[in-house]
Amino acid sequence: MHDTPLVIRQIGILCSELASDDTLKGLLDESGLPEDTWARIIMAVRRGETEELTPLLETLEDVAAAAGLDGVTVQTRAYQPLPATAPLLRTVSGWRCPHVRPCERLEIGADPRIERRCELTGDPLTWASVTSG
After folding, report:
1. pLDDT value at position 86?
2. pLDDT tens digit string along 15-65?
3. Contact 14, 54 (CB under 8 A)
4. Which residue from 65, 59, 57, 15 is spatially nearest to 33, judged by alpha carbons?
5. Residue 131: strand, helix, or coil
6. What is the pTM of this model?
């Protein structure tokens, strides 16, 4: 079972989609996204107000679907176990979401000297390291 609420995972997907396609926001705006939607999403993300995000993301998906765009807040992921030869202790470092209710956006193995930002709010991502084992 996953600990991160669905709406927070959706925000992570949206952030990644915006990071990979600098025309996406404009396409959604041109396709009829209500004018205050981005501001309301950003405010809810910064405050960690997940209950506010669900209807806003539904609106975003409806506009995306009407524009013929694939879902911008949904993605299929699959679990893949580490190979049996993986070391017992492993440290992973990278940039992660800085918000009160962090989404799942991670940039693992990225250069720590090049600051990354949330593509939704513009806030700087946080550098983190995790050791497992």
Report:
1. 59
2. 999 998 999 999 999 999 999 999 999 999 999 999 999 999 999 999 998
3. no
4. 59
5. strand
6. 0.69
Integer Cα distance of 67 and 62 in angstroms: 9
Give Cβ neighbours of residue 117 (< 8 Å, ≥ 6 apart). 123, 124, 125
Q: Which pLDDT tens digit goes with each residue over 63-99? A: 998 888 877 988 744 455 656 665 667 778 889 999 9
Nearest to 53 by CA among 63, 62, 64, 42: 42
- What does R_g of the chain's alpha carbons equal in angstroms? 16
Contact between residue 119 and residue 38 where contact means Cβ atoms under 8 Å apart: no
CA distance 45 to 107: 19
